[in-house]
Design goal:
This protein is mostly beta strands. Helix content is about 10%, strand content about 35%.
């Protein structure tokens, strides 16, 4: 039985959304990345923001709410595709780079003249043109398009994506362009959610999920630490979720959280690094986040644990999947650490006291062993078992 389970685990590890390669593609050589615009970049949205049924696949660069801004290739390469569509990306240009990445520029008003000349537009067309290597070479900083508001766009802006050319895994463009963005504001958490596992845990003597606000003032600082004075109680297995946003100075926009960690007594139990998301994992945003709660409140509580059948390779836990077992009558010190790409950081601390409750029969080893044997557990990508790294 166990041998069959291990074999099934091995097979499942080689399938599913988590198997798509998320490590950087092998590069022929390093290349320099430059700005796609000729003014200071301000973001309207960042990579990986949770949306219903999908993650935001790129960054949204503001264009002063007007069309007609010049758009430049962010690196050397060649134009590999042009698309025209009333929906989705609208007018979009794809530039394939020699380091294994492809950049995609979306919602454009039009392409640069030499690319526009390739089309014969007759109205609201849906057009696609694909080009072989080096037919249309382009240099970093070369004009390729003019910004617009085409496709599924709620206002003029440039939506920019970067993909692994071979696997089409979505990558955070800030990995290449983050040096161009000034941001000295840390993320900020609004509240946390306690989620007792059904029949296995209680939080504040309740088996229902509950939310608790942090009550932090709107500080907008580069580094901040906030500690809740209220003490909570728990017994058995409890998961946590967090509603938080990232910010930047000088704008009213809020963004998704790039890095998050959950620590118990100083030891990491959960970590998320929102970069390199396989396309086939898009819908799992609804399972990482509390989708039902979002439908009611429009606030995303992102779980700090992994559901048994989740395969997202951006989440890292041990075999307990990030679920905390409160099985000792003592204080448990809980800490959330949030960081953005520029390493602005916020820490949130609170205490949960283990208080024994006869309604819950704890057998931690049994829970862990059962979870280990679940086939869903085996769907984790291999690199979720990397050694943990605690932020200072």
């Amino acid at each position: 039985m166990l041998r069959g389970t291990i074999l099934s685990c091995f097979i499942l590890l080689l399938t599913g959304c988590g198997h798509e390669r998320t490590e950087p593609a092998s590069a022929c050589y390093d290349i320099d990345y430059v700005s796609p615009v000729n003014y200071d970049i301000t973001l309207a949205g960042n990579f990986g923001e949770p949306r219903p049924w999908h993650f935001h696949g790129g960054i949204d660069i503001k264009t002063d709410n007007v069309e007609g801004k010049q758009i430049f290739s962010i690196a050397d390469g060649y134009v590999s595709r042009l698309t025209v569509n009333m929906y989705g990306f609208g007018n979009a240009i794809y530039v394939t780079h020699p380091d294994g990445n492809t950049s995609v520029y979306c919602h454009l008003q039009r392409f640069a003249d030499k690319y526009e000349a390739l089309f014969h537009r007759v109205g609201n067309d849906t057009l696609l043109m694909v080009f072989p290597v080096n037919q249309l070479p382009v240099k970093a900083g070369e004009l390729i398009a003019v910004s617009g508001n085409t496709g599924h766009s709620t206002g003029p802006h440039l939506h920019l994506e970067i993909h692994d050319t071979k696997t089409w895994v979505m990558r955070d463009p800030l990995e290449k362009l983050g040096y161009l963005i000034v941001d000295t504001v840390a993320p900020q958490a609004h509240s946390f959610m306690a989620v007792p596992m059904e029949g296995q845990g209680l939080f504040n003597d309740s088996g229902e999920k509950q939310t608790f606000g942090f009550g932090q003032p709107d500080t907008k600082k580069q580094r901040t630490t906030w500690t809740l004075t209220r003490e909570f109680t728990a017994w058995g297995r409890v998961g946590f979720a967090l509603w938080a946003d990232d910010y930047a100075q000088g704008v009213h926009n809020h963004y998704g959280i790039r890095y998050s960690q959950l620590l118990v007594d100083g030891h990491e139990v959960f970590r998320a690094d929102v970069d390199s998301i396989p396309i086939s994992c898009q819908t799992e945003v609804n399972f990482w986040g509390d989708y039902d709660h979002w439908r009611k409140t429009k606030n995303w509580y992102m779980k700090s644990y992994r559901e048994a059948d989740m395969r997202l390779p951006i989440l890292f836990t041990g075999f307990d999947r990030g679920i905390i077992t409160f099985n000792e009558e003592r204080p448990y010190h809980i800490t959330y650490i949030l960081r953005d790409y520029q390493n602005n950081q916020a820490r949130y601390n609170f205490v949960v006291r283990g208080v024994k409750n006869k309604k819950i029969n704890i057998n931690k080893n049994k829970y862990l062993w059962n979870d280990y044997l679940y086939w869903q557990q085996c769907l984790w990508p291999l690199h979720t078992l990397r050694p943990v790294q605690i932020s200072s």
